[in-house]
Amino acid sequence: ANSPDEKALVDAASKLGISLKSVTPDPHYESARRLAFQINWGQSHTDVTTQEFIVDATLEFDHTRRRMTVMVRHPDGTFHIHSKGAESSMLEPNLCSRTSSEIRTKALERVNEIALAGLRTLVFATKQLSQDEYQQLLDERRMALSRFGEARREALRASTERIESGLELLAVTGIEDKLQIGVKECLENLRAAGIQVWVLTGDKEETAITVSQSAGHFPESMTIVRITGCTDFTSVAELVFKHLQGLDARYEQARLNQCRPRSKPEVSAGTRCLSPTLDEIDEVVCAAAQLAVAPDPEKNKKKTKSELVNVRRKIKKFREKISQYGSETNMPYRVPGRRGRAKPGASEESVGLVIDGASLVHALHPSLRAAFLDLCMNVTTVLCCRMSPMQKASMVELVHMGFGEMQRPVTAAIGDGGNDVSMILQANVGIGIYGKEGKEAARAADYVLPQFRFLQNLLLVHGHWAYHRISHTMLLFYFKCVAFVTTSILLAFYSGFSANAWYSSVVFGLYNLTLTSLVYMLFGMFERHLTYDQLLENPKLYRTISRNANLHFRRIILFVLDGVWHGSVIFFSVYFFLAGGGYFGNAVFIDNKGAHGNHFDFTLCGGAAMVYVVVCVNLRVLLQSRDHNLPMFIGFLITLVPNVAFFMAIQFKVSPSSSDYLTYLKLTLSPAFWLSFPVILITASLPVLIWRIKSDSWWQSHMSAGKKRKKHARTSILSTVLNDPPKSDSDPPNHINKEANRAGQNEHPSFQLVRLSSTNAT
């Protein structure tokens, strides 16, 4: 089977006694296949027969036709065409012309019943042809496949229309698409983390809403607004503006209930009037007029005067209708801020938007897309149903490109089938679920998950860790470079800007290569400031890193100032403690086995400053890290031992007349050098120590608040259960044979309902 739906159909047929045994290529035609079925209508083995069907042509499913068709030769010598697809395409009068309108109406009613039960619907139709008709259609199909370019497309379209016409309605099926384990909990955690979850699906509207409610995407208390069943631009525009005005009225009512003043739009972009402005209404009316009139002037000339008058009358009526939703102000559209709100959206209550694919075509019109995006961003969540793959990608593009450069959100698309590939490729992050609908989504994605519930692990845990590591590694790199440069800048002020350098060229070359890089790199690879369980139990902690919080301008300035502080402490400590600062004598080191002491010179001060800088910036990583793991310890050893050995060895390789000769050996013989060490380390690290204490307290308070909320929720649920015990579960779904028997008793024998079951990710 190519999909879970087809697998469910095959399993159902097997339970009814029809089992697929083999599929072999036809020896006469390469594109044909022979399907052998074992049929058992009775209870004994003698009732088992084997029949062979020949599939001569397959018209694969596409999102324009929304159906799949096969041309089949039956074992009894008859020739048939079988088709299955969505009810929106299969119940068209020109397609099922052999079926009466009464049966089509009953079929549509049954489809709606099945969809309301949360099942995925399929409609089947068939027709029987004579051998000549069948062969003629088959030859046309093969001839069309042999062509190229535009001629091939036109020939295939014409051939498909002829094959898929004059069908007779056969059956309606409902396939149960079970949710995977943990989907509801995963969605709840994602919402708690401040991640806006939208559902884009190709299912029928009723099915999509029912599944969304069962998955917790649409809570019972949520108000649902719809833009569905629209066939033209004007009706979609009217609903968009109507819902915007409704959200504005909801917000105003909430403001009055809470007795708070409304912020001015010029001051706060998050509480502006949502109703459309006069300019926006004019733009939409002009677009409606352009769509109502043919773009070709020659075609407009062919229209009668009465037709043009009707167009003008409709446009005038449309303007009057949508003007009632307009606002008195004429300010530009601004999307409200949503961060940190328990109930996002302008109305500050739970509101869900449902839109179908037919309406979305008009909602994405250039004149209306800004208002539609504003509506989407002012509700709690969005459900798009009956979507084609390109429409899914268009929705992702709308959200990603509809904002300014600095306000664009990061979009992630999650899918498990081939129809999700375009959406996955359009998003910033593509996530594929390796499941029963093939590997196309997994191959196109950046990340692959075995089940949907692991999405919370990917985002809330590994995403949190990855962002924290990368962002703080960048900040620490800024810090260590600023600390190193600060000592050189301050030296220029105290050396008459003579361009003399404290550090040798070797130090400049190795500072970012071996002296400080390894520890910082290991921090960026293995740091875990919070444990796995803490992040999963407190999904709201994800909000602390949203909107690139760690790389905010203020955070960067703080780390730069920290680097300036470290560099200043090191420079002035060396200047006063070792060089005397112009007020005291230079520090001394004991030479010739304690015979006498020699004074520090310029080179010795530079060597001491280099040692202090390297030790301080590496110690800064220890103070930043909350996970002192084994790789970090090994990194410190690898940084310390080879570098100490290298610099102790290189001082013996230079000429005795060089100022670098025995520099570090002399430093080890100086009491002032060693006594300055703890003073410099403590003084330079004091602001970081204070920050670390406050930071630990802040993280602990956030986790404690999350635990209190969870405890309160469990207490509320327990009290509800004790006061109102749950009712017994309803009867389980009928088995397939029972459903088939009930369908067989229908007054129309050609109309059947079969309820199947398959497990798949929603």
TrEMBL record:
GO molecular function terms listed in the Swiss-Prot or TrEMBL record: ATP binding; ATP hydrolysis activity; ATPase-coupled intramembrane lipid transporter activity; metal ion binding
Topology with regard to the membrane? Multi-pass membrane protein
Which organism is this protein's natural source?
Clonorchis sinensis
User: Which residue spans adopt a coiled-coil conformation according to this UniProt entry?
Assistant: 301-328
Its subcellular locations are:
Membrane
Which residue ranges have biased composition labelled Basic and acidic residues?
726-741
Which UniProt keywords are given for this protein, alphabetically ordered?
A: Coiled coil, Magnesium, Membrane, Metal-binding, Transmembrane, Transmembrane helix
Task: Cite the P-type ATPase C-terminal domain residue spans from the record.
Answer: 442-700
TM annotation in the entry: 475-495, 501-523, 556-579, 599-623, 630-652, 672-693
The residue ranges flagged as biased composition, category Polar residues, are: 743-762
**Xref: InterPro entries:** ATPase_P-typ_cyto_dom_N, ATPase_P-typ_TM_dom_sf, HAD-like_sf, HAD_sf, P_typ_ATPase, P_typ_ATPase_c
Q: Where is this region: Disordered?
A: 721-762
User: What name goes with this protein?
Assistant: Phospholipid-transporting ATPase ID
